[in-house]
């Protein structure tokens, strides 16, 4: 496998077909400020928070069509099957998935994606974006992208600057400079004077009043060759180690696993610092897309459809004499009376109640939970697997009860446990169960017992999801009590 080296920027000749736009989707975040819904095991991009579609699904849908090459998604390896499922559900089966063995910020992730995309065509245009942004006016996006594409093909890195409508302290800012083309001052493309880190409220208010400042959306459009050349110029250590990590990568199923040793040598640095703040090729296009990075619960209140009292409700919620609240229930009935400007989020295993003004402080609560070694900080009660999911129902001394759902045609690994026995009761669908030398077909309302130490496997041979209740019993019920002998998905 060979990868392009940093070269001088070239522009395709007018008579040559223009290379396609390759969407680069960065899906490495965990969204702790949206706890308890967003957690490390199932972060915000895989939830339908701003609409009926998952956030990564919306992102992929924005970049489909004849003008686009298959997307490249960079993600944490723990989320690989979630990403693969999202690609499948959104018609992007040919998309490529790059797995990061560790968090090394956006410069390393973008370097990996750019190198992979450049294998097809060094001049392919990259559209780099986070997997978890929302747009109130998505219909305006194509016109902005078309403008960015035209300018980027001249050899620039174009970022989208969002027109601010509030003194937001949760975003970085971009100071616009002179028009990129003085002969076309009405084009709406500008040089970047500087990038500003997240300001305090006073400074954000001053910038809003002064004008000429835009929110930094973290979206970029640039030829792969330009991005790689600028990384080589300003952060060669990042680019070189990512190149080695790709050359030594392992491939299984649809995943490209970056070499861990080489990738860990990468400095952890953002693309803003690595390139955008130092390059002379940065341009910005002001855009009014109603953009939000959905960084906290207050952002979801701002994006949501409000009732006559300014409340946003999701799920089974009843309100009385409450105003400007965001209330979300992931299951149980949630009743609220006499509250104003609060966020209330109810999941199956945790409840968050916080004033909207303190929405940024949720991450501090998560830090407390981690310090106390609470599993709720990072792991959901419902855990997703490539074959489906399971969720805990009851847990007591020496026993626990789970609901297991296996998608049609999928199967668990061939495995055994040293410390627990299991009893499976089929609620709906049909189960094909391997128990040592036996193969058993278990129908609805039937059950099977798996004694401690037996080799077993569960499979759904049918066309509808298989749902069963699992009762575990034994002295130790941890998920690490599992020995896999064979696995369709390459897990150890």
TrEMBL record:
It is an enzyme of class 2 (transferase). Coiled coil: none annotated. GO terms for biological process: GDP-mannose biosynthetic process; polysaccharide biosynthetic process. Residues 23-308 form the Nucleotidyl transferase domain. The keyword Nucleotide-binding applies. Residues 316-369 form the MannoseP isomerase/GMP-like beta-helix domain. It catalyses: alpha-D-mannose 1-phosphate + GTP + H(+) = GDP-alpha-D-mannose + diphosphate. Gene3D superfamilies: Jelly Rolls, Spore Coat Polysaccharide Biosynthesis Protein SpsA, Chain A. Pfam families: ManC_GMP_beta-helix, MannoseP_isomer, NTP_transferase. Its EC number is 2.7.7.13. Keywords: GTP-binding, Isomerase, Nucleotide-binding, Nucleotidyltransferase, Transferase. The keyword GTP-binding applies. InterPro entries: GMPP_N, Man1P_GuaTrfase/Man6P_Isoase, Man6P_isomerase-2_C, ManC/GMP-like_b-helix, Mannose-6P_isomerase_type2, NTP_transferase_dom, Nucleotide-diphossugar_trans, RmlC-like_jellyroll. Residues 374-487 form the Mannose-6-phosphate isomerase type II C-terminal domain. It comes from the Bacteria. GO terms for molecular function: GTP binding; isomerase activity; mannose-1-phosphate guanylyltransferase (GTP) activity. Belongs to the mannose-6-phosphate isomerase type 2 family. This is mannose-1-phosphate guanylyltransferase. It comes from Komagataeibacter xylinus (Gluconacetobacter xylinus).
């Amino acid at each position: 496998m060979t990868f392009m080296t940093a070269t001088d920027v070239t522009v395709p000749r007018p008579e040559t077909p223009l290379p396609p736009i390759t969407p680069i989707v960065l899906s490495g975040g965990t969204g702790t400020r949206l706890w308890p819904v967003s957690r490390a095991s199932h972060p915000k991009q895989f939830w339908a928070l701003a609409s009926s579609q998952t956030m990564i699904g919306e992102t992929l849908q924005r970049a489909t069509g004849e003008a686009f090459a298959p997307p490249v998604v960079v993600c944490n390896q723990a989320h690989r099957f979630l990403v693969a499922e999202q690609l499948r559900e959104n018609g992007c089966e040919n998309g490529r998935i790059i797995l990061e063995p560790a968090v090394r910020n956006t410069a390393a992730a973008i370097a990996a994606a750019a190198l992979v995309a450049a294998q097809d065509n060094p001049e392919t245009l990259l559209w780099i974006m986070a997997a978890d942004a929302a747009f109130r006016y998505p219909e305006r996006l194509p016109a902005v992208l078309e403008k960015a594409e035209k300018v980027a093909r001249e050899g620039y890195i174009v970022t989208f600057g969002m027109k601010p409508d509030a003194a937001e302290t949760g975003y970085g800012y971009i100071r616009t400079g002179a028009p990129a083309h003085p002969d076309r001052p009405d084009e709406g493309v500008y040089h970047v004077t500087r990038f500003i880190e997240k300001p305090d409220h006073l400074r954000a208010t001053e910038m809003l009043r002064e004008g000429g400042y835009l929110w930094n959306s973290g979206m970029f459009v640039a030829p792969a060759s330009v991005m790689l050349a600028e990384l080589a110029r300003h952060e060669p250590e990042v680019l070189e180690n990512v190149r080695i990590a790709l050359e030594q990568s392992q491939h299984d199923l649809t995943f490209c696993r970056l070499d861990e040793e080489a990738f860990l040598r990468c400095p952890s640095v953002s693309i803003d610092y690595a390139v955008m703040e130092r390059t002379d090729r940065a341009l910005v296009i002001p855009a009014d897309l109603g953009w939000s990075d959905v960084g906290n619960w207050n952002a979801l209140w701002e994006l949501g459809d409000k009732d006559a009292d300014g409340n946003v409700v999701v799920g089974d919620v009843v309100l009385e004499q409450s105003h400007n609240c965001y209330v979300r229930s992931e299951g149980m009935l949630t009743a609220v009376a006499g509250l104003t400007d609060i966020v209330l989020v109810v999941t199956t295993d945790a409840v968050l109640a916080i004033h909207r003004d303190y929405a940024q402080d949720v991450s501090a609560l998560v830090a407390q939970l981690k310090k106390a070694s609470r599993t709720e900080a990072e792991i959901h009660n419902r855990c997703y697997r490539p074959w489906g999911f399971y969720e805990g129902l009851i847990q007591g001394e020496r026993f626990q009860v789970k609901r297991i759902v296996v998608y049609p045609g999928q199967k668990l690994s061939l495995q055994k446990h040293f410390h627990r026995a299991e009893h499976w009761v089929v609620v709906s669908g049909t189960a094909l169960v391997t128990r040592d030398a036996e193969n058993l077909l278990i129908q609805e309302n039937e059950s099977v017992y798996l004694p401690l130490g037996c080799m077993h496997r569960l499979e759904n041979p049918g066309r509808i999801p298989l749902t069963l209740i699992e009762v575990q019993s034994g002295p130790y019920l941890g998920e690490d009590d599992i020995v896999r002998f064979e696995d369709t998905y390459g897990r150890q």
